[in-house]
């Protein structure tokens, strides 16, 4: 079991033999869309994991949980593996996916593909009144996420605090590019899958939160990768 939890190296983008089957994939291959932010804001569904491989070539994956499920049938005992995986580029994009199968290797690959199809773009900034550095190192505002009995609350932390969270939340936040954060949890956090889903639910609410232009300037909010200045990055998405 220990060998299955080893960290995996990011896969290389498959740009040579890929034939897009969706409209979004065709637009990316034709050069009409050149970054992940535009792809998510296009309004078109993300149904091909190769899109993430092309637009986010530095994406990494982390196996969050591996479970073995047994079932007795007339022909004997059947075993399947349920894998939970998180993917991210450590710079504003994060996804979570699950898959099950008879073999661990193929199940992990399927879980990675599912996580890529669920990828979201989060907002970062400096929402801590103790810091006010206007750099995108923490969450810009408090958010809550829930799954089952687990409830997670993320709050902005000053620069240098690090990720004051549990191990599962720390892995996901690192892949998302959050460097400092306070976390408060309720419920059965030992249930790793529900804990991971609650963390991802909080990040989804972070991504969906509407903000004003004044908040962008005061907190230094950046949506997605740190490529554009905060004002330009958010303004482009608000206009779209």
Write structural notes for this entry.
It contains 8 helices and 10 strands. With 240 residues, the chain is of the alpha+beta class. It folds into 2 domains: 3-121, Double Stranded RNA Binding Domain; 123-239, Ribosomal Protein S5, domain 2. It has a 4-stranded antiparallel sheet. A 4-stranded mixed sheet has the order 6-7-9-8. α5 (167-176) packs parallel to α6 (192-208). The N and C termini lie far apart (46 Å).
Provide the fold topology.
Layout (H helix, E strand, L loop, with lengths): L22 H7 L6 H6 L7 H7 L4 E14 L2 E13 L4 E9 L2 H14 L2 E2 L1 E2 L18 E5 L2 E6 L7 E2 L2 H10 L4 E6 L5 H17 L4 H7 L2 E2 L6 H10 L1
Parallel strand pairs: 8-9
Antiparallel strand pairs: 1-2, 2-3, 3-4, 5-10, 6-7, 7-9
Helix pairs in contact: 5-6
Characterize this entry briefly.
By secondary structure, the protein is α+β, with helices and mostly antiparallel strands.
User: What's the CATH architecture of the largest domain?
Assistant: 2-Layer Sandwich
* The CATH topology of the largest domain: Double Stranded RNA Binding Domain
Q: State the domain count.
A: 2
Task: Classify the secondary structure makeup into a structural class.
Answer: alpha+beta
Gross morphology is flat
* Residue-averaged pLDDT: 86
Q: Determine the fraction of residues in helical runs and give it as a percent range.
A: 25-40%
Query: In sequence order, what are the helices and strands, one letter per element?
Result: HHHEEEHEEEEEHEHHEH
Q: In percent, how much strand structure appears in the residues?
A: 25-35%
Report the C-alpha radius of gyration, rounded. 19 Å
Low-confidence stretches: 1-16, 228-240
Report on the biggest sheet: 4 strands, antiparallel
Number of strands: 10
What is the CATH class of the largest domain?
A: Alpha Beta
């Amino acid at each position: 079991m220990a060998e299955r939890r080893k960290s995996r190296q990011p896969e290389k983008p498959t740009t040579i033999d890929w034939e897009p089957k969706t409209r979004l994939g065709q637009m990316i291959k034709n050069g009409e869309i050149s970054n992940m932010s535009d792809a998510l804001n296009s309004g078109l569904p993300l149904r091909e994991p190769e899109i993430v491989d092309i637009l986010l070539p530095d994406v990494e994956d982390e196996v969050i949980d591996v479970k073995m499920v047994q079932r007795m049938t007339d022909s004997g005992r059947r075993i399947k593996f349920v894998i939970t995986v998180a993917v991210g580029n450590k710079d504003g994009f994060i996804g979570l996916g699950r898959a099950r199968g008879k073999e661990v290797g193929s199940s992990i690959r399927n879980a990675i593909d599912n996580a890529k199809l669920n990828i979201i773009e989060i907002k970062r900034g400096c929402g801590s009144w103790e810091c006010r550095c206007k750099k995108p190192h923490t969450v810009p505002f408090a958010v809550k996420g829930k799954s089952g009995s687990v409830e997670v609350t993320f709050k902005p932390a000053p620069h240098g605090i690090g990720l004051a969270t549990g191990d599962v939340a720390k892995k996901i936040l690192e892949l998302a590019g959050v460097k400092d954060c306070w976390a408060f949890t309720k419920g059965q956090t030992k249930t790793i899958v529900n804990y991971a889903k609650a963390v991802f639910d909080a990040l989804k609410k972070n991504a969906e939160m509407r903000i004003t232009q004044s908040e962008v300037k005061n907190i230094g909010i950046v949506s997605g990768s740190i490529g554009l200045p905060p004002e330009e990055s958010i303004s482009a998405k608000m206009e779209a």
